């Protein structure tokens, strides 16, 4: 029997539960150590998941039983932690975004390449059954040539919710100050940009508008910097596909992805759900409508949610870690690779700033999952 591969986790904040819980579904991976700059958070996670706590970051990345480091720190800390891990010879899987600026991201990509290390980046929803099914339908020609995409990532009016009461199962509060400062684009747009660039290749131009619609998000006794809570962008892909991306934390929840082709329309209901339903409408010759009624699409394989998943995140977050581990062990290209992460970051930053610019970074689109071909 092959021994499980060791991975260590840096950052035991709110999102760490998504990973540490779902790693239980991957018996080929063993968590070797945890570290957080707030010792209490690391200790609570260690007690819950039965994992030792590293004394410091250097001690964690230097562990000989660790092949890969999972970077779940605050976005402002992504670059520092990833660089430390790569410099120690460890492969890295980072939460999104890869960094907060392109110069740092470029440096990390070059460092990983120079040491022949895997540098992978979330989100991993493109590896889920629902998006893999959508991608299969597009490749099969079910709706003809794809022409237009509507990608939505509206997550509800967060400022109107009881967000100060949100805790993960380990008791860590939702980091609302960080979320408000980063804004909806840096926090959420990747859930659509990662699948879109996987399916349709590089983005060549972004034309975006971004703004803060609700300036009074903080409680009455608090204040702080705010990123945009609404953005919309037109994305032009190298393949000729055009997409409209809308992202907000103001409008009611809508995580849908709609692909319009010459011969019909495919609609995925929720990009945060590995088991999301997909419907197809096919072009026909009818008196009052040119499309058939929505017909369910048979998934490429079924997805069974894990009991420890959160209700609004029906995703196996650890599947991205498993993808990076497999790529590191086998030497094959990673489906969540560094060059694509850099490309997604370039587009994300442009959208978050409301810019209209050409996107210059290059990457080779990944292959679909073997089970989805």
Keywords summarizing the entry:
alpha/beta, 10 helices, 14 strands, 29% helix, 21% strand
Task: Describe the protein's topology.
Blueprint: E1 5-10, H1 16-22, E2 29-35, H2 39-49, H3 57-61, E3 68-71, H4 78-87, E4 91-94, H5 102-114, E5 119-121, H6 129-140, E6 146-154, H7 176-188, H8 190-200, E7 203-211, E8 230-237, E9 242-248, E10 257-261, E11 264-268, E12 278-282, E13 295-296, H9 318-330, H10 338-352, E14 356-358
Parallel strand pairs: 1-2, 1-3, 3-4, 4-5, 6-9
Antiparallel strand pairs: 6-10, 7-8, 7-14, 8-9, 10-11, 11-12, 12-13
Domain Gfo/Idh/MocA-like oxidoreductase N-terminal: 6-119
GO molecular function, one term: nucleotide binding
InterPro entries: Gfo/Idh/MocA-like_OxRdtase_N (IPR000683), Gfo/Idh/MocA_oxidrdct_glycsds (IPR050463), GFO_IDH_MocA-like_dom (IPR055170), NAD(P)-bd_dom_sf (IPR036291)
Task: Tell me what the structure shows.
This protein has 373 residues and is of the alpha/beta class. The chain has a domain at 128-311 and 354-360: 2-Layer Sandwich (Dihydrodipicolinate Reductase, domain 2), CATH 3.30.360.10. Helix content is 29%, strand content 21%. It has helices at 16-22, 39-49, 57-61, 78-87, 102-114, 129-140, 176-188, 190-200, 318-330, 338-352; strands at residues 5-10, 29-35, 68-71, 91-94, 119-121, 146-154, 203-211, 230-237, 242-248, 257-261, 264-268, 278-282, 295-296, 356-358. Helix 5 links the parallel strand 4 (91-94) and strand 5 (119-121). Helix 4 runs parallel beside helix 5. The longest helix has 15 residues, at 338-352. The radius of gyration is 20 Å and the shape is globular. The two termini are 29 Å apart.
